[in-house]
Amino acid sequence: MAKFLDEVKIYLRSGDGGGGCISFRREKFVPNGGPDGGDGGRGGHIIFTTNHNLNTLIDFRYKQHFKASRGQHGMGRDRSGSRAEDMVIKVPVGTEIINDETGEVLKDMNKPDQTWHMLKGGRGGRGNATFVTSVNQAPKRADPGEEGIEMWVRLRLKLLADVGIIGLPNAGKSTFLSVISNAKPEIADYPFTTLSPQLGMVRRHNKDMVFADLPGLIQGAADGKGMGHRFLKHLSRCAVSLHLIDGTEPNTAVTYRTIRDELERYDEQFGSNLATLPEIVAISKSDAMLDDEKIEVVRAIKEQTGKEPVLLSSITDDGVEGILNTLLQYVDAARSARVEEDEEQEQELLFDFDEAIND
Q: The domain that contains 318 carries what CATH number?
């Protein structure tokens, strides 16, 4: 099983341009041949592209330096150097490219087959043939190639899931995902069974939804305790969160508040939107609860949230159908909003392009 890695730091450098050439035409019976030094070739660009077959940044653990090649130097007989091959770096869909020095998100590679030219290769230097003037017919000058650009960046992967499943360790998240999808997460009766996010595809009414089972949060996760801090960022792209609470816990209201507090603290620290995402609250393991216990737990959670929680059992399938239908409504609404946003952005790009042509 491939290891999951969602954040790395890498070094980038575009290629230097090739140097221009100083050369003079030398042929038999042409004693005073003119300059014929060619220009140097362009250095290689640094280009990022998304690949739908990748779902982790693990490959960058073994290679952190990416340098594009130098352009070929110019040659005599007016031969320009060939430009260097571009350095193409493949990343999973959902990867953010961040300036390591400033922390600025330079690009969000959140679409399939998306390509971004990040660093331009250095321009090739001019050969002496380009410096001929009426005054200087035999210039002995050629420019060196332009240097490439270097930068340290961080790659941060945020999974592209429609529904994020959150809750304290052992709340039944992995069991629920295994029941509704073909995902096979490790399941056991102890905390932190899930050590990395698990994805599952669910087809409902001829529509697909991607669920992400995020590793269990604990109190203090926003400060880095446990493992939840590492994976909370994946929730930010989801349309809705499914908050599972173990109904057999002695104090479910405190359990609910623990997770909500961590989401709010995370938002304060990182300027995220986790606490404002639409949330569906479900009481899991209802098959192990007595009727009186169900009534008491529902009442306690309703006082905390102001909404009626769903009783859910992944063992007996109670509540599963209804909660999937509800989640699909939120996912459909989010997708419609994204389509409108993309159309507006395309119109803006077309407008800018028209302006550039007119200028």
A: 3.40.50.300
Could you tell me the residue range of the domain that residue 111 belongs to? 1-23+35-131+145-157
How big is the CA angle at 281 (ends 276 and 286), to the nearest 5 degrees? 165
Write the single-letter amino acid at 187.
Answer: I
The whole-model pTM stands at: 0.74
**End-to-end CA separation in angstroms for the chain:** 54
SS3 30: strand
Backbone angles phi, psi at 25, to 5 degrees: -65, 125
Tokens of 20: 């221009």
Written as six digits, the tokens of 79 are 């031969």
Distance CA 269, CA 250 (A): 31
150 and 251 co-located in one domain: no
Q: Report d(CA 262, CA 221) in Å as an integer.
A: 6
| pLDDT tens-digit readout, 35-88 | 999 999 999 999 999 998 888 898 898 899 999 999 999 999 999 999 999 999
Cα separation, 264 vs 16, whole angstroms? 47
Query: Is residue 169 within 8 Å of 115, Cβ to Cβ?
Result: no
- Between CA 279 and CA 76 the distance in angstroms is 69
What is d(CA 123, CA 142) in angstroms, rounded to the nearest whole number? 13
